[in-house]
Amino acid sequence: MPWDTEPAVPAVPAAQPPFGTALARGAMGRCPVCGQGKLFNGCLRLVDDCSHCHALLGRIRADDAPPYFTILIVGHLLVPFVFVVERAWYPPMWLHMAVWLPLFAILSTLVLRPVKGAVVAWMLRLGLTGTEQGAQIVVAPRRQAPGDA
């Protein structure tokens, strides 16, 4: 790890919104800093930087936190209903699987993107911008052999 004598330049502008505002903006898929630019480039991939305020968003690594929180939220929403249905009607296991598995999958898919946006906003608010370990390693593109056309 290199020793730097100069302080690192912050990747995020100094004026950050309140915590709740940043979480709401992230959950809506907007830049947590300004609320104007897009947060996602595709389904779950973050944009490199905000098109409005140029906050560096692409290096933030949410990793396993969004799926974990998604499972936690969806599980707490649906498991009580699974228990109530089981206790009241005693349906066969195949009916449980036919009803609850698709419902869990659909809700998890719908909740994952807003949760990832909120986690990215939370990380940005904590100052975890992805630049903590120094510059990112750039991988050179692979050269093609003459016969690989």
Question: How would the blueprint of this fold be written?
Answer:
Layout: H1 19-27, H2 65-89, H3 93-126
Summarize it:
It contains 3 helices and no strands.
Question: Which keywords apply here?
Answer:
single chain; 149 residues; mainly alpha; 46% helix
Can you put this structure into words, describing what you see?
- The protein has helices spanning 19-27, 65-89, 93-126.
- Helix 1 crosses helix 3 and helix 2 (65-89) packs antiparallel against helix 3.
- It starts with 18 loop residues before the first helix and ends in a 23-residue tail after the last helix.
- The protein contains 3 helices and no strands.
- It has 149 residues and is mainly α.
Mean pLDDT score: 87
The N- to C-terminal Cα distance equals 41 Å
- Unreliable spans are none
Count of runs of 4 or more consecutive helical residues: 3
Main sheet summary: none
Structural class by SSE content? mainly alpha
% residues in beta strands:
under 5%
Give the CA-based shape: extended
SSE pattern, N- to C-terminal: HHH
| Rg, Å, rounded | 21 Å
- The counted number of beta strands is 0
- Oligomeric state of shown chains: single chain
What is the percent of helical residues? Answer: 40-55%
